[in-house]
Design brief:
About 40% of the residues lie in helices and about 20% in strands. With about 280 residues, it is of the alpha/beta class. The chain has a single domain (about 5-165, about 180-210, about 260-270), classed as 3-Layer(aba) Sandwich (Rossmann fold). Bound molecules: S-adenosylmethionine (SAM).
Length: about 280
Amino acid sequence: MGASTRWSTLVKARLAEMQRLDPGRGEVGPAFWDKRAKRFAAAMAGTAERDPLLARLRRATGPRSTLLDVGAGPGRFALALAPRVERVVAVDSSAVMVEIVARRARRLRLTNVEGVVGAWPDVDVAPASVSVCSYVLPLIADAKRFLRRLDACTIEQAFVYTNAASLDFLTDPLWRHFHGKPRRLGPTYLDLVDVLAELGIPAEVEVVELPTRPHHKNINAAVKAYRDQLLLPDNPAVRHELRGLLSSWLVEEKGRLRPPVRSTPAAIVSWRPQRD
Ligand SMILES: C[S@@+](CC[C@H](N)C(=O)[O-])C[C@H]1O[C@@H](n2cnc3c(N)ncnc32)[C@H](O)[C@@H]1O
């Protein structure tokens, strides 16, 4: 089995499991992100400055650079880089996410940020000096088409940011406790490097540690977030059991709750497009 077929098999099996446990969830399309945009934006606010990818992107860009952020979400990287580059295009398939980027850009008085609503790779944008795609690929079944277009829209350097361990390595014991069997694993950065190799793109990999965010404001918020993440039904028995398990597992930091690890590994996969 080739790398892109393996990738697609892993993603489809994971999405099918999500769909079976929570009908509608297996699509993870714009409606999914529209609904979660506000919560995601609040949870990620202020995280870019501590993120090793931002330092890496700062080194790769300058005042004359253009930046393309694919799946920009609420724009944590796009907006952090905008003051030091010529122009930023933030693409996202969720219109609510793009609205958040536009609102934040106005508040920061940034006039060089353009938001584009559309699902990559079917988006009409001009190539940029540097492109970034952070935490988007693990649920995209056709990684080959997605990456080929990202490469075509990049002039100098492309960066894809993704999990370096299984997406579930923290919540795996909870998943097994409730579902009685392991979760279908998604692809990792190693699969990503293999897909790029299949496209004839030799990539560099840097594994970095991401500081854990203490973002649950209380145990109720944590129960809600983990119930969603673990695809559990919303009933009093499940909430009660999850609350008991989370109460002894989560740790408090600065009045908020986080998992009992200080950081998690992520992979910065980058390449310089080769044009004939
Ligand atoms: C986990 S969030 C990551 C957001 C941002 N890149 C970050 O790291 O904070 C994933 C984002 O990718 C967007 N997305 C998913 N598939 C997409 C696609 N095919 N084209 C454009 N955006 C997509 C979602 O709407 C969501 O905003």
